[in-house]
Fold this sequence. Notes:
Layout: E1 8-14, H1 15-25, H2 31-41, E2 43-53, H3 63-71, E3 75-80, E4 82-85, E5 91-94, H4 98-108, E6 114-118, H5 125-133, E7 137-142, H6 153-158, E8 161-164, H7 169-172, H8 176-179
Parallel strand pairs: 1-2, 1-6, 2-3, 6-7, 7-8
Antiparallel strand pairs: 4-5
Amino acid sequence: xxxxxxxxxxxxxDGSNLFATAKALNFDIDYxxxxxxxxxxxxxxxxxxxxxxxxxxxxxxxxxxVDWLDYNGYTLITKPTKEFxxxxxxxxxxxxxxxxxxxxxxxxxxxxxxxVLFSGDGDFRRLVESLQRxxxxxxxxxxxxxxxxxxxxxxxxxxDSFIEIADMKAEFGRxxxxxxxxxxxx
Length: 186
């Protein structure tokens, strides 16, 4: 992974995708160390975290993480989930944040040199291609070490660089000593 100290950098985290990837790898993320890692690599302008929240739940397991991120240098982009009934009559919850993430990345393109996308969603391939045409380098963080791989092959190939999250445990993985501090994790 190649970073330049003078380049302007922005991070975009697809919360549900990162959660699923980390869970599949049994990898706890220390968000404080994650932000610090990228801030020491380049001029970090923005760290955005995208997630849908269930509004009518009295307590959500995601709430402590969202609150912590909001007070510790991350910009939270949330929306309420929607409940619907599928064709089999089963209730489902939907909370896709892809559109919000894509709009924000395109909007930031003229202000940054490099974007880091934490997602393996193949739907983002065209977004990455469009950003690259605007002169932005795009690195994608996900995993090929899960079964099946959490990153779509077309997204991995489109990215300027692919960062295997399993290889980043030393940089922003959560150790047993970090776990005792009470910092939220995945």
